[in-house]
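Q: Structure tokens for this one, please.
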Amino acid sequence: MIPRSTLNLPFVAGLLAVLAVGCGRSAPAPPPVPAWEVANPIAPLPAAPVGIDIDLAKLQNPPTPQRVRLGRWLFYDKRLSGDGTLSCATCHRPENAFSEPTPVSSGIRGQKGLRKAPSFINEAVTLYPHFFWDGRAGSLEDQALGPIANPIEMGSTHESMIETLSRVPGYKPYFKEAFGTDEITKDRVAHALADYERTRMSGNSPWDRWRFNRDQQAVSEQVKQGNELFYNKARCNQCHLGNNFTDSLFHNLGVGWDPAKKKFADEGRFVVTKKPVDRGAFKTPTLRDVTKHAPYMHDGSQKTLREVMEWYNRGGEKNPSLDPKVEPLHLTPAEIDALIAMMQALDGEGYQDTAPAAFPQ
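A: Here is the predicted structure, written as tokens:
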């Protein structure tokens, strides 16, 4: 017997392979990678762009690449809707920074709601657990499930959604990869969707490069003037706080107030809390990539950023619950121009995406 230590193991392995081929046998070919996996490969968690202070891996319950990949499929998959015509991305459009270019959202069968879909970029850095314009959801997971079961939005039920996904054998390996077993539940769907949404971060805008990288050439002098106004005379930072430019709280600007009827078309936060002070109050949206969010306000009633600034400049629409922070600003046209330029400089990068070309079957 030849001692094992003297064997040329690679040579022996190669010889055996040749002999196997010579005998008509060959090693089995690996199974082909499904088209949907090629279209949506697993990827590391993205690093936060300049201006956004967060490490996704250090969150209390951090996203995983496996859940993010699953969530990306689910976010763009129209099979989650009642009639298979809508996905989450139908209203939260990537090209609009996950908002939409219409005054209000359209659901199944063309039904119209009262509000437009707000952007959710940088929600991973949100300090307050309030989601939707009225804050009725306490987490991104709750927010993700809401539209699916809303009869005028995606028009399904959570039970029907689970049945539909359970009939797609291609999804089961990815639920197992993400959660340990292939069981499909509404909570797992919500978790995967929310983890995908958490990766949609926007930063490294011209404003960020100026403020954080000290690049004086990144923005114009008009933008710098607008920044000075933003934090002083215009007092925008009373509500649009921090690097994400939102306090995630609720304010009444008078949007939707009908002076003749003395009522709001949409009572906003009041519907949730029943507190009179919350009547007509809505969540402060982020100003990140705000140029992609037109038309503006919860009802899309302001077509342009200029209309929004003129609304603030005159002190909003007077009503019994008007937020005391909303007062006439006495801005000149040139100052409004500068503020708009500053907001335009908040257009960032890092969140962009397109739908996968294929989905599990």
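A few notes: DSSP finds 13 helices and four strands in the chain. The first helix runs from residue 9 to 22.
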